[in-house]
Every structure is written in structure tokens, then in C-alpha cells.
Amino acid sequence: LIHFDSHGDINSHKASPTKNFHGMYLRPFFSDFDIDLINKLVPKKLGTNQVLFIGDLSLDGDEPDFFIAHDLRNITNQQFIENKQGALRLIADFINRFEHIHISFDIDVLDRVDAGATGIPNDGKWRLAQILEILELISKHPSFTLDLCEVNPSKSGKTKTIKAAQKIILKLLS
């Protein structure tokens, strides 16, 4: 799993400030979740070494502790800028370990200049050109799937945001 986002989406229900499940949905895939019904839906857990986060994550609730305790990896925009080749090598090494990659892409990872019409706006710092460079690398993997979320066409900046989403999908399909 490669998770592009400006949020961790790995809170427990108890510690979530919003109780919005979208901010917790990854947690049951890696650890016991504090809502038994949801926990039962994911009986087999992924190893935390099977996820790579890409984004300048705004962590809240118990997410910071979870990230540290489970040694989750995240590539920030600053790390990418300071050592682009190293970041790309880390991504290549990650994807080459797996037969299949799932890409979970939240459009709010992008700077508002490129995608301002999002569901839960944040100060995403990644520029579209940087993300497309990463996706070019991922697109060479023989087997991947994609979900793309939080494009909100009712908000200001919808045209740029929709075009950014289209470019993301097209980069992976080309």
C-alpha cells in the first residue's frame, strides 16, 4: 500500500478528534481496532512494513504514537526536495518487493495551488509535477490498483483539482 495523503488516516476511534471514519480507516488493516464490528471485518492484518506514506502528514489523536510504535515510513516533501534520487530509490525498493501495489491517493496531498477543491483541506505541500514523477515510477510496476478520493467539485478551484486528478489517473494508465 502506498498512501498519498496529508493526513495519517490511522487514528483509533477513541482518540479521533472528529470521529470521522475516513480519518481511521487504515488502522483496522494494521492493528486491532477499538470498534469490534469493524475489527471483525479485517481479521487478517497487514504488516506495517507493507505500507509507505507519501505526504506532509498532519497527525492527531493517537496517530503520532502509532507511527512511532509501528515504525511507519513516510516521505515528506522536504525529504523529496533534499534528496529526490534517494526518495525515488526508496519508493522503487518498496514497490519491487511486492507482486501487487495498491495506491490510495487523497488529492489533499497536493498544494492548494494545484488542487484546492478537496473534501478535508489541509496544507498539502506536494506539487503536481513532483507527484507525477513518483507516479511515473510506480506506473512501471506490472500490477497495481488505485483509489483516488476527496475531489470536491462543489468547492472553489474545482477545475484545477479535477484536471489534477485526471493527470494522476492518466499518468498511471500511460
Outline of this structure?
With 174 residues, this protein is of the alpha/beta class. The protein is built from seven helices and five strands. A five-stranded parallel sheet has the order 3-2-1-4-5.
Notes on the protein architecture:
The protein is an alpha/beta fold and 174 residues long. The protein is built from seven helices and five strands. The chain has helices at residues 27-30, 36-41, 63-69, 77-82, 84-95, 128-138, 158-173; strands at 2-4, 52-54, 73-75, 101-106, 144-149. Strands 3-2-1-4-5 form a five-stranded parallel beta sheet. Helix 6 (128-138) runs parallel beside helix 7.
Using brief descriptors, characterize the structure shown.
5-stranded parallel beta sheet; globular; 7 helices; 174 residues
How are strands sequenced across the largest beta sheet?
Answer: 3-2-1-4-5
Q: Structural class from helices and strands?
A: alpha/beta
Tally the helices.
Answer: 7
The count of DSSP E runs of length 2 or more, i.e. the number of strands, is 5
Helix/strand order, N-terminal first: EHHEHEHHEHEH
Low-confidence runs: none
Q: Provide the residue-averaged pLDDT.
A: 95
N-end to C-end Cα span: 20 Å
Strand content: 5-15%
The best one-word shape is globular
The largest sheet, given as strand count, sense and whether it forms a barrel, is: 5 strands, parallel
Q: What Rg is obtained from the alpha carbons, in whole angstroms?
A: 16 Å
Helix content: 25-40%
